[in-house]
Each structure stands twice: as C-alpha cells, then as structure tokens.
Design brief:
This protein has 273 residues and is of the alpha+beta class. It folds into two domains: 154 residues, 2-Layer Sandwich (Ribosomal Protein S5, domain 2); 108 residues, GHMP kinase, C-terminal domain (Alpha-Beta Plaits, 2-Layer Sandwich). 27% of the residues lie in helices and 30% in strands. The longest helix has 16 residues.
Length: 273
C-alpha cells in the first residue's frame, strides 16, 4: 500500500510565550502544499526502513516513520505485521515544511488502512501528538488554525485555489531549536482565526512570521529571495515555519524568476480550477 505525504506552509506564525515545560506557545495557520514524499509498506519477514531520494539524517530508530510503526504496534497488540517500509524523500529537511512530521502522521494513517484498525481521525491525532507537535495537522490535512505547541487546532475557512503558490527551498538548514532560541516572544499582531476576512492584498501589512527577523539576520539570502518574490508580483510572501523555505502567493499562472547566490529548488503549484 502506498501514500504520498505532503508538506505544509505557515500563513503567519506568532511565538506568543515560552512555557515552563520548555516549549513555546505559538499561533499559526497550517496550509497543505502539494510537494510530496512517497511512502509504501509491503509485508515482510522482518521490519526494515528503506530510504531513497534526499538523504535522511539520523538513525532508523529516530525516524518518525519508525516511531509511528512502533507506537501503533505497541498500542494494538498483534495487529501490526512485519513490514518493509519504503520512503522516497522529496520534501527538504530543515526547511520549515514539516516533511518529517508528515511522514510520521501518514505512516499512522497508512497502518490504520492497511491493518484495518478502524481508528478515527481524532484517535490518530492523539497518537500523532506523541510523535511531534506538527504531526496532528497532517492527520486532518486541511487548513487549520493552530495554537499551544501547534497541536490545538480548529478549522479555518481559507481557500487559495484561485491563486498560484511558488515554493523556494534554498540549500540552507535552519535548526528549529536555534531559531526558537533567537526569538523574543510577544503577542500576536492579528487574530489568524479571522484571516479569511482579511483580503489577501492586505496580508503583507498585517501578518508576520516571527522567525523571519532572526533567521534573515543569520541568512541574508533568505531575505533577498523574499524580496524577489515581492518584486516580481507576489501578493503575499513569507518564510514557512522556522525556515528556510519561502513561498509566494501569485495571481493564477504567475511566478517569479528567482536569482540567488545559493543553490535552491523551486516548486510551483497551480491549483486545479
């Protein structure tokens, strides 16, 4: 059985406060984007994880796909068989796109379907939270306002299907922990739950990603790419998550021709009409 874990972008991201448990409270809107990995499971005599595509850092046991497998295997005794797990990695890591979180969450959904566990999305989201703060979003995989660590979610009525989105992924790795360490938390400028009431043309004036100031200072090339997106017609442009990926929202069928001093990949999405 095969599935295609997609990434996300953040439409605004405010870091509100640092909590006593060491995490930060944030407010953001998660929006799914059609850049996808490939994940497949096949019955086997022994469970193994095989990766191709982009190099995946760390050992097998630290991968969220492996953790998802072990988590469900422990929770539903005797219902999860040995599997060959194949991941073809396309979503860049360290880019603020949630690719690892997507892989873990989609693994839970894949096992639920393959093993006929009949777990609800709400139950899968509970398991996903044990893997990471971003993971529950990918169980629902539709626009969501997120708060707390990002795991407290509610639906938001945001539809960008009339536009095109261009995603730029520079070969710059931004550590999430390092990005948080450079942040001074403060109150949100805008209630992102009401983002759908704000015309897209005004997003630039009213919403922000708090990570941009410290990350752009450390990596000026990212600020330059964002400016090029605006200079070439983006209605709204921002960094996703803690970086380093940037996106621009354009009128349908439009995009920018980016020039940069660093290597990067471009992904252009035009929504079906």
């Amino acid at each position: 059985m095969i599935c295609f874990p997609n990434c996300k972008i953040n439409l605004g991201l405010y870091v509100i406060r640092k909590r006593e448990d060491g995490y930060h409270d944030v407010e953001t809107v998660f929006y799914p984007f059609a850049l996808r990995d490939v994940l497949e499971i096949v019955p086997a005599e022994e469970t193994r994880l095989h990766t191709t595509g982009l190099a995946v850092a760390g050992n097998e046991q630290d991968n969220l796909i492996w953790k998802a497998y072990e988590l469900l295997k422990e929770e539903v005794h005797g219902k999860i068989p040995a599997l060959d797990i194949y991941l073809h990695k396309i979503i860049p890591m360290g880019a603020g796109l949630g690719g690892g979180s997507a892989d873990g969450a989609f693994m839970l959904k894949l096992l639920n379907d393959f093993c006929k566990l009949d777990l609800s999305d709400e139950r899968l989201a509970e398991y996903a939270l044990k893997l990471g703060s971003d993971c529950p979003f990918f169980i629902y995989n539709k626009p969501k306002f997120g708060k707390g660590r990002g795991e407290q979610m509610e639906d938001v009525n945001i539809d960008l299907s009339a536009y095109s989105i261009q995603l730029i992924c520079p070969k710059v790795h931004v550590s999430t922990a390092a990005a948080f360490s450079m942040i001074t938390p403060k109150a949100a400028d805008h209630d992102l739950r009401q983002l759908h009431t704000l015309p897209l043309e005004h997003w630039r004036e009213h919403i922000r990603n708090d990570f941009e100031v410290p990350v752009f200072k450390q990596h000026p090339v990212l600020a330059d790419i964002k400016q090029q997106l605006y200079d070439q017609g983006a209605i709204y442009a921002a960094m996703s998550g803690s970086g380093s990926a940037l996106f621009g929202i354009f009128l349908r069928s439009k995009k920018a021709e980016i020039k940069s001093g660093t290597e990067f990949s471009q992904f252009y999405t035009e929504f079906p009409g």
